[in-house]
């Protein structure tokens, strides 16, 4: 495809990079808080790809925007649930990572 | 319009009950099942009646036509899964009401989680929209994680955390695949994708992301590490729900999408690879199950193994003759349903045996056959189906898959079916050998409430019965199937 | 560099290359969904297309999304009951913070109300407004202000449930003339959506506040936490 660098494409490309970087963090780190942050970075990457790719060459599309809002709420809920479980786990075990996770 | 009320009730009712169970006094939470179960059974049967009289339907939420709105698909496959869910979840709920009396904090919060889980599963079975499936997966996944965490012991929290991380990573991979598909085809509806999708780099990468995400959530070998601690360590009714139903959700999505994208897009190499991973799961899971010392861990590894059979679907339907594909479809669905019934029965009867001897160790089952014959009988019946011995659902499923493999000339899958059955026999008989041995620990047995035994027996018996009357459910499941066989 | 890091690096590189390839080779969609949205806007009851998609065309997604939020609270409640917290510690007892709060709180409430109202014709809506409300709750908590209504479990749960119950109730009530779930009649769609958004804002705000309050308040020293739990003779 030609014209890959339209205004909206910048979002899609940043999304690709963010998703990759987040994935690296998610797997490379052991500390659960870092992995959660990495998960959120991956999520932002996926949202940017969703909006950027859909709008490139076609203009504003409200559907991916709405999907991203739904996605953000779901990500907030997942992150909150993970934090709740993580802090209970930390309190019960004193660990910030998962056992036999070496 | 057929199913006007019953279709939305399948998810709206559990959602409403989920909220209500937060509002009522703890003592009343379990009793809500006496309102919920009859209504859900009625709604499921009404949907089935609608399918039988009027054939497959599309339900337009908000009266908007896809791709603008979200449609639901009420075909044989969806209705089959709904009935399976209603049966297994209702029985597990009856079991849980009695079982959880001894687990005070968990007993009051199990109920809202159960209803939300149910809503999420019914949402997934009915979904026709790939983004809606993402939200449905999250409802089901987070409810399942919450159920694993309910025990709140350090082990339960670690298992829940591990499960959650796998589920989140899987969802994101799936979501990114959806983002690519929407970018390429401008639609989220499966029907729209079926028409528009062509074979190109974007579709292939999206498909790869979706497959990887869903494999992680289905716990297919070698991505299964989160499953045994989560399923084996949870409260018994939770183990049954998760192993019997929840892992099927992500497999179901994969199956539907595979057929929607069609043979032009789905690569044969990937299909073979999925089959090989399935074979790996059958061998590795069976071997690990045999090596376990904890009864419920054994059952959990048995799930890892049985998931493998489901994945023989992909090589058997991709670029094979219509007859072989039809047999593979029938066999896989029979396997899915029979495993749901048998695995729920196996987990529940294992829970009963553990209650009886007061220990999760298999070695402590010595002599239990004298005192708890009924629990052991349910365990054995469920085992018959898992091993694939006639006349069980597991046997019918393997028989159909075997025919499909022969017809399509892929004889190597026969080895998987045969050796897998032997491995299952090995771990089931390991439990039996211990139970029939006489030993010094025989006077320690306590009698669990009768309900617990009855529920496990009903599930185990259904796993057998479904094999005897397989033609009827298979006939429904084929209605409107995407293999084009009416 | 550990094996894990090398593996993560290779995987990350592979994913970026594959995604880049997918983005470069993307075909242009033939389906034009924005056009369909534009055509259906007059029947949606709102003027802003994103709100129309969220609360009318794809409102089923939003319904399930609220269930996901509630699920997180249910798990948080369950874990707190299984692993009880110490009596709640107050936040920073800082007079300056309290003085600023007195100014900030009304402002926050006005902003939340504006965001909710703005949602019908420009970016904004229930989630944004709910998040701002939650910020107010978090500030209150950090300043150690005791709020009887936030500590009242029954009231709190009713507030949490309100949004989803209203959403479900309206979705089912509109079916009475014999139309599918969530089909708002075009002439009342605006009012119904506003009512749903209003209750959702409140519930989303309370959900986020609850999630903040239900995590153990002290996570700095688990040994200390465990010592505190052992019953004193």
Provide an overview of this structure:
- The complex is a heterotrimer of chains A (102), B (486) and C (233).
- With 102 residues, chain A is an all-alpha fold.
- Chain A contains three helices and no strands.
- In chain A, helix 1 (7-28) runs antiparallel to helix 2 and helix 2 runs antiparallel to helix 3 (62-93).
- The model of chain B has no long low-confidence stretch (mean pLDDT 92).
- Chain B has a domain at 267-486.
- Chain C has one domain (36-216).
- Chain C contains ten helices and no strands.
- Chain C is globular and about 60 Å long.
- Chains in contact: A-B, A-C, B-C.
- At the B-C interface, helix 1, helix 5, helix 6, helix 7 and helix 9 of B face helix 1, helix 2, helix 4 and helix 8 of C.
Name the poorly predicted regions of chain C. 227-233
Rg over alpha carbons of chain A: 17 Å
Q: Tell me the helix content of chain A.
A: over 70%
What's the structural domain tally of chain C? 1
Structural class of the helix and strand makeup of chain C?
mainly alpha
Q: Give the CATH architecture of chain A.
A: Orthogonal Bundle
What is the H-and-E element order of chain C? HHHHHHHHHH
- Number of DSSP E strands of chain A: 0
Shape of chain A: elongated
Features:
heterotrimer; B: 486 residues; mainly alpha; two-stranded antiparallel sheet; 20 helices; 2 strands; 75% helix; globular; C: 233 residues; 10 helices; disordered C terminus
Please specify the SSE layout and strand pairing.
The complex is a heterotrimer of chains A (about 100), B (about 475) and C (about 230).
Chain A: H1 7-28, H2 32-55, H3 62-93
Helix pairs in contact in A: 1-2, 2-3
Chain B: H1 6-23, H2 26-29, H3 33-54, E1 57-60, E2 71-74, H4 76-99, H5 104-126, H6 130-149, H7 154-185, H8 190-196, H9 201-218, H10 227-233, H11 236-261, H12 268-291, H13 295-310, H14 313-317, H15 322-357, H16 373-387, H17 393-407, H18 412-436, H19 450-468, H20 471-477
Antiparallel strand pairs in B: 1-2
Helix pairs in contact in B: 1-3, 1-5, 3-4, 4-5, 4-11, 4-15, 4-19, 4-20, 5-6, 5-11, 6-7, 6-11, 7-9, 7-10, 9-11, 10-11, 10-13, 11-15, 12-13, 12-18, 13-15, 13-18, 15-16, 15-17, 15-19, 16-18, 16-19, 17-18, 17-19
Chain C: H1 3-24, H2 33-44, H3 49-57, H4 59-82, H5 95-118, H6 126-142, H7 148-151, H8 153-173, H9 189-214, H10 222-229
